Amino acid sequence: MLAVVMVAAIGVGVLAAVTGWATLTDTRTVLVARDTIVRGSVIQAEDLTEAQVGADVALDLVSAGARADVVGQRAAWDVAAGTALTTGAMTEQLVPPSGMSVLGIVLPPPASPGLALLPGDRVRAVVTATDPASEQTPTFHEAEVVAVNPPAPDGQTVVDVLVTHEEAITLAAEAAAGKVTLVLDSRELDTDANTSTSTDEETDPTDESGEPSGSPETEEG
Known about the structure:
Shape: elongated
Largest sheet: 5 strands, antiparallel
Number of helices: 4
Oligomer: single chain
Helix content: 10-25%
């Protein structure tokens, strides 16, 4: 009986050792910020170090093998020292770029599209009249969604949009007055539709025979 117990104990110990070894070896190496990387700054090689994490970590972390692709890009947001980099932490250009501004618009539920907004969406910030009975034609500002913040307890959502430097001041005042509604547009450009429309409207000045359309036929003889 004692021998059986000893064999069982040895088996448990071996199993624990194998499990521990598997846990230690089932890891991956990722990039980590050596010091705090400030949003908008160009990431340098000396800003990065490496660390091992469990292979089952759900975060979309940047592999250490991608170091060459990361160096030279800009930080999309502040990355604290010791924090592993995620794929969304880098961007090829500074946000906002030169001549553009990021504006946060507070939207109550009726002023937001039914579909969830995503970064990169093209929207129009439509400015409506304060008086519903007004016959004033609504105006709008074209913008691009940069970020969508989680809804507040009262249902309001802050949407960060990218607009031109000149429009930012006007749109900020209109949004503060509660007169802005966001309309979601297609990400596809309308060049094909415009091209087909213009083609349909144009008429060929010559027919298949090469004669101008509508010209009288010439009688022989």
